[in-house]
Design a protein that fits this description.
The chain is α+β, with helices and mostly antiparallel strands and 416 residues long. It has 16 helices and eight strands.
Length: 416
């Protein structure tokens, strides 16, 4: 996720474990355990400084020390974790975990083993072997100051499902052959989806259900029903916001009528719900939709909560909307205090830079703090912009819409 600074990363090894009964020649069943261990990293390995009575120094002749310094420089000198987002983090994570793999296989010999990025699956014949393997994985990761996440570590027995039980009913649901039937069946479909969601709270039931709709053709009557259902879904399942936003953009680009007033009400409710809690992704997508469809937000409570958010992506979207008179009564006082020379190297550098070069906010105390800073002035002179103003959709929009990703990603709002 793009933000003002990269956040420390955690290694997550999703754990699903299983076993089957098998005769071991001793007159009883042995266990063949298939298990995938989940873990979150503790502090990442750092090269030790060379310390003397006069203090400590770092040996920058060592590659690891130089990489460590580069990582710390990307995240306000934090030494815990690696940045989330850059491709370099995948490479560095692979280097660390490849070394952990070698350490692990020095002590155990599973029937088979695989790792996909940071997901492990180790196969053992006996349950006791699986327990020993788990202990060995603890030790191997500990060498690199990584820790297992106990909540995501377990050994499960077969038979177990190969697919989520809720996917079948959603996948097989019929929407009928006529538009009239589709209107009625859409209501039943969303009833089914939310009933399954209540049974499987942590699963991406709604996202999967919406993706099923993307390939269907909706005529005027069924689209009218669908858009009302989608706007209601936004309020109760904010994780589906990106999918819903893309569906509205595609529908509009295909010539369907979008109820801007209904969308404005739904967006206002989203901001009122999520801005006070600092939920940047939900508010950012709500503002993105407001900008795309020209929804004016006047609700006092929503604007007050929005104006206090510290997320720079949210602030830039809000300033863009304010500049287009979509947030006419928005108080810019808090964000105005962040347009300073110091903040260019602080947590709100993105806002401090973009708001000034786009003339949305002035430098505190007057002048131009971007022009006065050699590094940022170089970027500005070269025409570097990190925020791309949201454009209204048109018939060409669908060709530029990226494939939906299950996690919200602000890179869709940022110029590469």
């Amino acid at each position: 996720m793009v933000g003002d600074k990269a956040a420390p990363a955690n290694f997550h090894f999703r754990c699903v474990t299983a076993s089957v009964n098998r005769n071991n020649g001793e007159g009883r069943s042995a266990t063949v355990a298939f298990w995938r261990v989940t873990a979150s990293s503790g502090p990442k390995p750092s090269a030790r400084p060379l310390c003397t009575s006069r203090g400590c120094s770092w040996n920058y002749a060592l590659l690891g020390v130089r990489i460590d310094r580069a990582l710390r420089n990307t995240q306000s000198l934090q030494t815990n974790g690696i940045p989330i987002g850059p491709d370099t983090s995948f490479v560095i994570g692979e280097i660390i975990l490849a070394a952990a793999d070698e350490e692990l296989l020095r002590t155990i010999r599973p029937i088979s083993a695989l790792r996909f990025y940071d997901d492990y699956e180790l196969v053992f014949e006996k349950y006791s072997d699986a327990e020993e393997g788990l202990t060995a994985l603890h030790s191997a990761l500990g060498v690199f100051n990584l820790q297992l996440n106990a909540q995501k570590t377990q050994i499960q027995s077969l038979p177990m499902r190969l697919d989520h039980p809720w996917r079948g009913p959603i996948r097989s649901y019929s929407f009928g052959d006529t538009d009239e039937a589709r209107q009625r069946l859409l209501l039943g479909y969303f009833d089914l989806v939310f009933s399954l969601k209540r049974e499987h709270v942590t699963d991406a039931v709604v996202g999967y259900a919406i993706s099923r709709l993307e390939s269907l053709v909706f005529e005027e009557g069924s689209w009218s029903v669908l858009q009302d259902l989608l706007l209601q879904t936004m309020s109760v399942e904010p994780d589906s916001l990106q999918q819903i936003a893309v569906m509205f953009i595609k529908a509009y680009a295909e010539g369907k009528i979008v109820s801007v007033e209904s969308m404005r009400e739904a967006i206002t409710l989203l901001i009122r719900q999520h801005a006070p809690q600092g939920h940047g992704s939900e508010v950012a997508w709500a503002l993105w939709m407001a900008l795309s469809f020209g929804c004016e937000i006047e609700d006092k409570q929503a604007l007050q909560s929005l104006a206090q958010m510290s997320d720079s992506s949210v602030a830039l979207l809000a300033l863009d909307a304010h500049n287009r008179r979509l947030l006419p009564n928005l108080d810019l006082g808090y964000w105005s205090t962040l347009i300073t020379p110091d903040e260019l190297y602080g947590g709100h550098w993105l806002l401090s830079y973009e708001a000034r070069v786009r003339n949305w906010l002035g430098t505190v105390g007057g002048g131009d703090h971007v022009a006065a800073d050699p590094a940022f002035n170089f970027l500005n002179t070269a025409g570097v912009r990190f925020y791309q103003p949201v454009r209204a959709p048109n018939r060409h929009t669908t060709a530029t819409i990226p494939n939906w990703r299950p996690a919200y990603d602000t890179t869709d709002l940022i110029v590469p």
